Amino acid sequence: MGLLLGTSPAALAHPHGWVDMSVEGVFDDQGNLTALRQRWRMDPFYSQVVMEEMATVKDGTSMAQRLDALGVEIRNNLATQHNLTNITLDGQPVAQGEVTDTNTDYRDDRLVYEFVLPLSTPQRLAGHTLSYRIFDPTYYIEMVHEANEDGSQPLPDALKLDHPPAGCTTRIVKATPDPQKVMEAAMLDKGDSGEPNLGRFFAETGEIACPG
């Protein structure tokens, strides 16, 4: 999955895979948002390819150990790209800490990568809106929140809150890319690369807002 797992996306059209993600905003006892807990489920085809490759390894390790090693590889790759996560508070950038609590598993024919992305400084959201967008800049991978079968509505758990102050709300805003960008992405093939950060035009926006 290209940048995500360090593999080559050559000879594959855009996007050539997808990730279904869910996010949980984590609050501390003072009502500050401290982290975004994320779960990414890789698409079944890519998951199968990776699992088949790992099954051929003859180094005496268990599959659980290989999954752990895969999680380290994913974490290290993502760390070079701000974990593919852009966070703002009222439109101003919010710095990230180092990812913690990673876990990699294989469930229901899907590779699942879970992690906690701390904010470098806890943010008090009273009267403010924190927004995030999670996307692969190259758009080799389409990243969307967990949704119903036809993809028209995000699931209730796609964005939820852990111990939030009273009255805080969440919202997921679908992307509305310009038709020209859609065409541009569709025409990319093989080793082509589009404009830098092409993926941002297709990224959904998650919002967490709390009353002042």
Helical amount among residues, as a percent range? 10-25%
Helical segment count: 3
Q: Tell me the structural class.
A: alpha+beta
Assign an overall shape.
globular
Proportion of beta-strand residues: 35-45%
Largest sheet: 6 strands, mixed
- As residue ranges, the low-confidence spans are 7-13
- The helix/strand order is EEHHEEEEEEEEHE
Gyration radius, in Å? 18 Å
End-to-end CA span:
41 Å
Mean pLDDT across all amino acids: 90
Number of strands: 11
Number of domains: 1
Structure description:
- By secondary structure, this protein is of the alpha+beta class.
- It has one domain.
- 18% of the residues lie in helices and 36% in strands.
- It is built from 3 helices and 11 strands.
- It has helices at 44-55, 63-79, 179-187, and strands at residues 17-27, 32-42, 85-89, 92-93, 100-107, 110-124, 129-134, 141-145, 159-162, 169-173, 205-209.
- The strands form 2 sheets. Strands 1, 2, 5, 6, 8 and 9 form a 6-stranded mixed sheet that branches. It has a 5-stranded antiparallel sheet with strand order 4-3-7-11-10, with no helix packed on it.
- A hairpin with a 2-residue loop joins strand 3 (85-89) and strand 4 (92-93).
- The longest helix has 17 residues, at 63-79.
- The protein is globular and about 55 Å long.
- The termini are far apart.
- The model is unreliable at 7-13 (pLDDT under 50).
